[in-house]
Design brief:
This protein is an alpha/beta fold. Helix content is about 35%, strand content about 25%. The chain has a nine-stranded mixed beta sheet, sandwiched between helices. A four-stranded mixed beta sheet has the order 3-2-6-7. A hairpin with a 5-residue loop joins strand 6 and strand 7. It is globular. The termini are close together. The mean pLDDT is about 90.
Amino acid sequence: MIGVMKPKILSYGEIIFDLIEGRPFLGGAPLNFAWFVNQLGGQATLFSAVGNDAMGSEAISRIEDYGIDNHINFSNQPTGTAIVNSDGRFDISYPAAWSEVAAPKSVDGLYDLLYFGTLAQTSPFNSSQIVDLVENTVTNVFIDVNLRYPFYSKELISNSLEMANIAKVNLEEWREIKLLFSIEDPFVFMDRFNLTHFAITMGPEGASFFCDGQEFRYKPKKIIEVDPTGAGDAFSAGFVLGILSGIPEMEALKVACEAGAFVAGNEGAHMKLPKAIRTQLCF
């Protein structure tokens, strides 16, 4: 892999402060994903939006400190927040700044991959921006099917998957998708939406990775879960960069699972991955 160019990754969507017992923690899946992409050897650019408020200013300051390239709009709506309940579910404020993320009129060069989730497409404005980016700026499209009630529908999920060639869900989301589309077999699901790569994460049980008619499974060493926030985003970063690097599928899955497990075993989403994980992808 020596000499492989750093993949250029465009991450589009929400910046959200998670409110845990009243304390704000900077997050949002697209930002978390970009944070881990940069650690694993990619070059991430974040397209998002914040409000003209204290949280918005803090978010931009932190993102600049992280060294993440970005195009962040200021909105008349407040910076996004989500109350994290004791059962791990989210009460997401809406409308919020992230419900209108305008992509620059001129996007500098082609990207190797576009990342977006289902939450960002709650607004027709964002959906139209994503369609334009898919059609004009990227080679691969990765959809993180992050279902957050009530911010999704069967139509929204279907439209997202039809734009993508790579997808990831967690086990709970996979159960919901199977019910919505009356599909049980992951390979039938991939054929329906023309997916080349598909992953199902299963928490402490690891993940399954489907491609080229084969299934790969990996279960990381057992950890004591401290905070799962951001673990799925770390997995996503490892997963897509493993695919783009061209390493064997099992190695790509191993990197993704170990990155996710490390984050779940520590507090906070924005942490530095250990060198043993970061150096498995040599861009």
